[in-house]
Amino acid sequence: MSCPHAEPPEGVREIEGTMHTDFRNTMSYGSYLNLDRLLSSQHPASSPEHHDEMLFIIQHQTSELWLKLVLHELNECRRLMEKDEIGKALKCLARVKHIQKTLTEQWSVLATLTPREYAQFRGVLGSSSGFQSFQYRAVEFILGNKHRGMLKVFESDPEAHKLLSTLLEEPTVYDAFLHALARAGYAIPVSILQRDVSEAWVCHESLIPVFMEIYESDTTQWSFYQACEDLVDLEDNFQAWRFRHMSVVKRIIGFKTGTGGSSGVDFLKRALDLTFFPELFAVRTEIGK
User: Which residues of the chain have pLDDT under 70?
Assistant: First the structure.
């Protein structure tokens, strides 16, 4: 005769008998994620430690983790486009778009930092600045906003400098897409297919008829149409992130200069003029004329 099953106390969820509870000789959640290292990587510089500096550090560390994943996905997206696996590449773009929304919403957490609170520990940041984020710069490079002069910022960090130097000389996601369109029979000008990929992308009016065909033809392969729209979404999201960044900075420090030496809000505002895929916006003016 079996013993009656004892019910757990009210308000307590029972630990099922099949669940692992001894991790002395097996991998645990913490060991898999290397949480001991991750959670000990926050080192406030203020002394005595300012309560809100932890927020500032974690805000930027989590952003860097998301940027690492964005770069991971964009590299894979480019690789898949180079193999004409457009459908699989779109999955990568879909994931990037969700990450972008998370990054943008995350600014609302930093916005809880008041001007007075930030001013109390801002001095310990020295000349460190988000402008020096090599992963953010890498994302901009792989999307087309390249700037050889930015390499100088990372000369003291050999790994970051190597990554950015490599991306500078490699095709962008947009280049890979245009080459895929060319292989599918679209009239992409040879001058664009053979362009110097280390240069920042600028608008090429000769591409507008190509995108008009993609948008207006009933025979367009759906994945090409969707790729165009996903790239537009990606740029929209990037601009939303830039604007939110600028807004939060203005909210917290007003029009002070940045810790890295920039003009602050005015410098961030100029980033809103940058574009990755200008033809995908220009074509909208021509559609339906």
Answer: 1-6
